[in-house]
Amino acid sequence: MSFTELARKEAAPFWEGSFKHPFVQSLAAGDLTPEVFRYYLLQDRYYLEHFSKLYRYIAEQTKDKEVQAQLRENAENLKLGEMAIREEFFSELAISEKEIRETPIAPTAYHYVSHMYRQLIDGTPKTAYAGMLPCAWLYQEIGDRLIEAGSPHPLYQRWIETYAGEEAIEGIEKECALLNRLYQESPKEEQQQMIEAFVISSKMEHAFWDMATSLEKW
C-alpha cells in the first residue's frame, strides 16, 4: 500500500469525525454562531502563520529538488489564497490588531503547531512534510463535500469555496503522489514516522473544531 492509503486508513476515525463535526455541519447549515467562527479565525490565523513558515523551513532542510519546489509553491499559494481570504474575513468582521494581540493562543492551536515544528527537530524533512498534508487534504475534501449544497450564510459559503474545485483536487493529488514517492524511498523506521506524523496531525485537525466550538482556553 502507498503512504497515503496507509495513512488515511490509520487516521480514518479522525477524518470521519471532522466530516461529521458540529462545527462543520453548522457551518454548512449556516447556523454556526458568530462567536465560534470568530474564535476559529483568530486561532487559525496563528496556525496559518506558522504553517507558511514551516513550508519554507522544510524546503530549506530537504535536498530533494522536487520537494523544495513544491513546498515553496505551497507557501506562495497559501499567501495569495487562503491567507488573503482570511484577511478579507478579518476586515469584514472588524477583527482588529488589538483583538489579535489580546486573544491568547488556545491549547490545541499551540500543540498542533508545536507538533509540526517537532518533526523538524526530532524527525526528518519527510516526516515534517507528511505532518503538513492532513490540513490541506482534509479541507479540500470538506470543501468538495459541502460545495454542492453550499451554505446559506455568505461568509461560510466563501469559506467552503476556498477549498473546493478542480484546482484544489489537482494540487492534493500532486502532493499525495510526491509523498508516496518519498515514502517508498525511505527506510522502514522513517516510513513509520511519516505515518505517525500524519495521524497526529489528523487528530489535531479534529481537535481544532472542538477547540473552536468550546472557545477553548488554558
From TrEMBL:
<comment type="function">
    <text>Catalyzes an amino-pyrimidine hydrolysis reaction at the C5' of the pyrimidine moiety of thiamine compounds, a reaction that is part of a thiamine salvage pathway.</text>
</comment>
<comment type="subunit">
    <text>Homotetramer.</text>
</comment>
<dbReference type="InterPro" id="IPR050967">
    <property type="entry name" value="Thiamine_Salvage_TenA"/>
</dbReference>
<comment type="pathway">
    <text>Cofactor biosynthesis; thiamine diphosphate biosynthesis.</text>
</comment>
<dbReference type="InterPro" id="IPR004305">
    <property type="entry name" value="Thiaminase-2/PQQC"/>
</dbReference>
<protein>
    <recommendedName>
        <fullName>Aminopyrimidine aminohydrolase</fullName>
        <ecNumber>3.5.99.2</ecNumber>
    </recommendedName>
</protein>
<keyword id="KW-0378">Hydrolase</keyword>
<dbReference type="GO" id="GO:0009228">
    <property type="term" value="P:thiamine biosynthetic process"/>
</dbReference>
<dbReference type="Pfam" id="PF03070">
    <property type="entry name" value="TENA_THI-4"/>
</dbReference>
<feature type="domain" description="Thiaminase-2/PQQC">
    <location>
        <begin position="9"/>
        <end position="212"/>
    </location>
</feature>
<dbReference type="GO" id="GO:0050334">
    <property type="term" value="F:thiaminase activity"/>
</dbReference>
<comment type="similarity">
    <text>Belongs to the TenA family.</text>
</comment>
<dbReference type="InterPro" id="IPR027574">
    <property type="entry name" value="Thiaminase_II"/>
</dbReference>
<dbReference type="InterPro" id="IPR016084">
    <property type="entry name" value="Haem_Oase-like_multi-hlx"/>
</dbReference>
<dbReference type="GO" id="GO:0005829">
    <property type="term" value="C:cytosol"/>
</dbReference>
<keyword id="KW-0784">Thiamine biosynthesis</keyword>
